[in-house]
Amino acid sequence: MNRVVKNFKAAATRNNTIELKELRGQNVVIYFYPKDSTPGCTTEGQDFRDLHAKFRRSKTVIFGVSRDSLTSHEKFREKQTFPFDLISDADEKLCK
C-alpha cells in the first residue's frame, strides 16, 4: 500500500536524524512495531534484514519505528544485525 507521508524529522539509531524530505527520489518503507526484542517484532525485523539487499537494489530504504528509547533500539539493532536504522517515537507523533 502506498501512502503519502508528511515530512518528519526524528532521532534514529547510529546517532542519525532521519528527515523524510532528504530521501526524495528513493522509495521508503517505514514499518511500525510495538516493542523491541519481542518475538513477533524480532521476526518482522529479521525479515526486513534478510531482504535488505533486494530493497537496496530497488532504491528502497527501510526504517523501523516504535515507542522504545534509542538505547533500547541500539541494543535490538545490534543484536539482530539490522542494516537499517530504528526510529524512536517516544511521543507517538509518527505513530499517530
Structure keywords:
96 residues; alpha/beta; Glutaredoxin; three-stranded parallel β-sheet; two-stranded antiparallel sheet
Output the number of helix runs.
3
Overall tally of domains? 1
- The spatial strand order of the largest sheet comes to 3-4-5
The span between the termini is: 17 Å
| SSE pattern | EEEHHEHE
CATH architectural name: 3-Layer(aba) Sandwich
Radius of gyration: 13 Å
Question: What layout of secondary structure does this protein have?
Answer:
Elements: E1 9-12, E2 16-19, E3 27-32, H1 39-50, H2 52-57, E4 60-66, H3 70-80, E5 85-88
Parallel strand pairs: 3-4, 4-5
Antiparallel strand pairs: 1-2
Note down, in words, how this protein is organized.
The protein is an alpha/beta fold and 96 residues long. It has a single domain (9-88), classed as Glutaredoxin, CATH 3.40.30. Helix content is 30%, strand content 26%. It contains 3 helices and 5 strands, in the order E-E-E-H-H-E-H-E. The strands form 2 sheets. It has a 3-stranded parallel beta sheet with strand order 3-4-5. Strands 1-2 form a two-stranded antiparallel sheet. Helix 3 links the parallel strand 4 (60-66) and strand 5. The mean pLDDT is 95.
Kindly summarize this structure in a few lines.
With 96 residues, the chain is an alpha/beta fold. Helices cover 30% and strands 26% of the residues.
